[in-house]
User: Fold these one by one.
Assistant:
Number 1:
Amino acid sequence: MRSLRIPLIPSSEITPRHVFEARRGFLRQAGSVALAASGLTASLAQRTQAETAPAVKLAAKPNPAYALAEQPTPYKDVTGYNNFYEFGTDKRDPAERAHTLKTRPWTLQVDGLVKTPMTFAIDDLIKIAPLEERVYRHRCVEGWSMVVPWIGFPLAELLQRVGPTGDAKYVEFTSLADQKQMPGIGSGVLDWPYREGLRLDEANHPLTLLTFGLYGEVLPPQNGAPVRIVVPWKYGFKSAKSIVKISLTNRLPLTSWNRTAPEEYGFYSNVNPNVDHPRWSQATERRIGAGTLFAPKQKTLMFNGYEAQVGQLYAGMDLRKFF
Ligand code: MTE
């Protein structure tokens, strides 16, 4: 049973309340420690199998404008400690289970308020602009963070090809929701399909990356293969994984987390150490892979350290109200 593993942060602190409570109820029913121990062994065996799946290389030129002095998080943590609720709510579920995700054939539909709606086969999409490697800070709303060498190109490159109309104000992302491939879809944990959104100027910001790989390889399924969004100045949940649709709209998109718990997950979700989550502080974070459970936390930076690049997008806005 997964809760026997020692989490880096107590799960009461990091897990959305409804998920935590559902899991605790389940544990109470399951009861015995012996059963729990055997579950742990089985899932560890599966994990080893999933993690040894052959990696496919993906060439990309490092972009020095997005290098960081900080040490990248070890590959095993980037690909072994994930949130991808379509495959379960435990951090290790995606690495164990996401090998069932079929990433070919795969298409990405781009529609809505655009001059030229287009549907791209994934192997064509990846070629529309040069791939870059960019090392970004990646901060989860739960209070942990990583440093990840992603591979992709700016989402703006794609948006430019479809041509947003003058009415377009927002961009909505929709992830795949296929219960046959994704065991978590049957659960009521979130409102499926996973949906996220950005304002059009945020989506067009050069930092916003349409992402196909990490660490010189194509994205492993648990990190959102074959294509995801990465928005490094926002909490990780804004970065939708395994996306199948991008729609331009003139209405604020209804996002999965906002629908599930609006008081906890606002539309903007900019990393902001001055605005606490209703149940915990956002002032500090724990860098995954940087040591033991007792390693000191580090201070969270405004906009996750990208204030100079994105601060002007929010000039004049009350960031407590638009959290
Ligand atoms: N996208 C989908 N489709 N489903 C999810 O559950 N989780 C989000 C985000 N994108 C999620 C998702 C959350 S909460 C985080 S923190 C990041 O993915 C985690 O990305 P990583 O596992 O690559 O670190």
Number 2:
Amino acid sequence: MRNLLVTGGAGFIGSNFVAYMLEKYADYHLIVYDKLTYAGRLENLDRVAAHPHYHFVRGDICDAALVRDTIRTFHIDTIVNFAAETHVDRSIFDPGAFIETDVRGTYVLLEAARDFKLERYHQISTDEVYGHIPAGQRSRETDPMLPRSPYAASKAGAEHLVYAYHITYGVPTTVTRGSNNIGPFQYPEKAVSLFATNAIDDQPLPIYGDGLQVRDYQYVLDHCEAIDVVLHRGHIGEVYNVGTEIETRNIDMAHKLLDILGKPYTLLQYVTDRAGHDRRYALDCSKLRALGWVSQHTFDAALEQTVRWYVDNPQWWRPLKSGEYLDYYRRQYIERL
Ligand code: NAD
Ligand code: TYD
């Protein structure tokens, strides 16, 4: 492994992963391939822009010719696929974009991995493929995928293709299924980045339904480290869950976030629930721990660090809250707030 194509590397997790890998591996080359949708920002990569082992290609993962050309040009031996449409609420408005990028895009990358006989194809997947998990249970990698949102279904569809390409064509694949990530550079549409930036500006925090839904919020760099571990020590053809195994209710997350900022709970506003809202995700991460990975951040530490970053970096998120974002925000929240 030497030349990694990081698709979706200008997004939240991908950009953190690129910075992490460049710092850790002096001899690796990281080639970001990204369409720069609303969620992809070149400024997320400013801190690595001058690094001699970093390159950027603007492109769509559905563009097979450009994907192949990029693999040839940069002698790519490994693909790490972060590229995706990623927000559940947007998938409820517009499932088509999710099927196109998350499913068809994955197919295009797998075809390339197969033709070029790459050393590894790694798929970034999500705990959402398991669907809602009843209290007392935890998802293991062998459990069935029962996705319930268009986003989760697209990610599950992509994973089925990854498995099929491994079995049918022998493509050396690995998959990680991560829980909710929080940290720097998360587009302010996801719960924690939205709540932090709204609270800083004394704007309401929209709590869907009763706010008792359970998520496992992990720090983004823990997830990046897990991907690194699976790339280097994971077994070909295998899937690994990645999370803290700490369960947090959304309302408790919101209270803690307001406490960190010293803002009043009156900012909380209960709004109409998301259609098909999964009430609980909960992973069993023992398979990954057996490879030697441990999550470094508790939920409280992860939230504190994340909120502080948004306080310290308004120049990053404030300009995002305009144009396309405001259109989306109005569409998503106007009748709810
Ligand atoms: P993000 O929305 O911040 O970034 C997605 C990136 O993909 C953007 O840079 C975007 O420009 C790019 N992209 C979108 N469509 C593309 C296309 N057709 N071709 C090339 N690039 C394209 O997403 P994120 O939160 O960083 O998530 C990254 C990956 O991790 C996704 O696959 C997501 O499903 C998965 N994941 C996310 C979380 C989370 O909590 N955010 C948790 C588990 C798994
Ligand atoms: P989100 O960050 O969209 O991640 P996901 O739905 O993929 O887990 O949402 C996290 C949780 O927060 C989820 O239960 C939905 C809830 N939520 C709200 O209550 N209000 C909001 O405005 C958003 C965006 C999410």
